[in-house]
Amino acid sequence: MRKLFKNISYVYTFDEKIGDIENGYILVEDNVIKEVGRNWENIEADEIYDLDGYMIIPGFVNTHHHMFQSLTRGLAADKKLFDWLVFHYEIWKFIDEEAIYVSSLIALYEMIKTGVTTTTDHLYLYPYGNNKLFDAEIEAAKLIGVRFHPTRGSMSLSKKNGGLPPDSVVQTDDEILQESVRVIEKYHDPSKYSMLRVALAPCSPFSVTPYLMKETVKIANKYDVLLHTHLAETRDEEEYCLEKFGKRPVDYMEELGWLNNKVWFAHMVWLSKEDMEKLSKNNVGMAHCPSSNMRLGSGIAPVSELKNKIRIGIAVDGSASNDTNNMIMEARNALLLQRAKYGANALTVREVLKMATIGGAGVLKMDDYIGKIAPEMAADFIGFKLDKVEFAGGLHNPINSILLCDPKQVDLSVINGEIKILNSEFTNFEISDFLEKHNMISKKLLKKAGILL
Fold it and tell me: Where are the alpha helices (DSSP H) in 166-209?
């Protein structure tokens, strides 16, 4: 199937050789971009789409999330991270497969609506040993058609072991390791253009044992998969690591063998200059989560200091610490938050958009086929109509309007060559039934936790 997207007012490819194109076209064959250029008159295609009045950019890559948290938005509104977690664990311990499946669809729908074509997810709790939760979110991703790189998360330290969660949501190290192997062998597809890859992600330094961290590295090396965890998110975490391990978080990761090019960390707010140099030297990746960091009062990550040192992607983070799945807003917040601390020239719009696209692709080691618009790249791209009222007066340099103005959503989404959104509407997915079910599940969880009567 050949699809021709022609007469595109602006194509921002983020490919250094091709650059920006005015009045251009993109030719897609099945799920791969075959041509990008200006003269389309003699090209034959099975389907032709006239995108006059559109600007097109690569699809966004979301590098950190907890999709199940869409069920508990707006709660614990004034708590910092550790207190926020303790509060939510008493709700999340009742989550089941249906809750994961439906909440994943809600989160994915909102992400696609706001430009995400590839996302990861960090599912780290399995109440009462229900390992099928991981399978449930994969089924949701397949149904909606997003490119998915989930992580098999884990927690092995409950309150009685010095951790934060209740016993019911943690697992033994051995079970976690067995499950890590199971999901890799069942789901991980390392091939180019893959729609599904798996990474491993113990939750955090304060929620798993050193043994689990080290053994997880061994599995990742054996199967050649990536590694992920939260790191240096808050001052409390730094104090915990100093007290428990006698080391700051980055130094502790180094001791465990977690500073290597398979690893990307979420947050990294509290870093010293020495930390930054270690991260750079070991080619570690970063998922920057500005909205969550603001919401929980965690701080401002030193992205402008790291932008030329390490691989950086943007992430919406959990929907209960954001409390959205809105990638456009996340990229905007990344831009503005850095400027609030480091000045107006801390980051440019293009730098942030590249972090949200080719940067995120690099973090997930998928930049050989996603993150830019060029021949032989996967057909993942998004579009914005230029006649939006939100763009009025901002068309002299349209790309800036994506983050400096408020487009609210994309008007075109193409994922793996399939059109997901056209003329601002989803083409083959109806969310209304899942929306009602999602709210019912959320209410049920809050009742079980004693928050609603």
Answer: 173-187
Report the C-alpha gap between 305 and 299 in whole angstroms.
Answer: 15
Please say whether the beta carbons of 229 and 287 come within 8 A.
Answer: no
Helix (H, G, I), strand (E, B) or coil at 381: strand
Q: Angle CA(205)–CA(207)–CA(209) in degrees, nearest 5?
A: 75
pTM over 0.85: yes
Angle (deg, nearest 10), helices 81-92 and 432-448: 100
Query: Interior CA angle at 437 toward 433 and 441, to 5°?
Result: 170
Q: Are 358 and 16 in contact (CB under 8 A)?
A: no
**Cα(432)–Cα(429) distance, rounded to whole angstroms?**
9
CA 167 to the chain's CA centroid = 28
Superfamily of domain 2-58+372-426 in the CATH hierarchy: Urease, subunit C, domain 1 (2.30.40.10)
Are 133 and 179 within 8 A, CB to CB? no
The two three-digit tokens of residue 103, written as one number: 């909440």
Q: What is the pLDDT of residues 1-38, one digit of tens each?
A: 999 999 999 999 999 999 999 999 999 999 999 999 99
- CATH of 60-363 given 3.20.20.140, 1.10.10.10, 3.90.226.10, 1.20.120.80: 3.20.20.140
Pairing state between β 20-29 and 2-12 = antiparallel
CA 190 to chain centre: 19
Helices (H) and strands (E) in the chain, counts: 15, 17
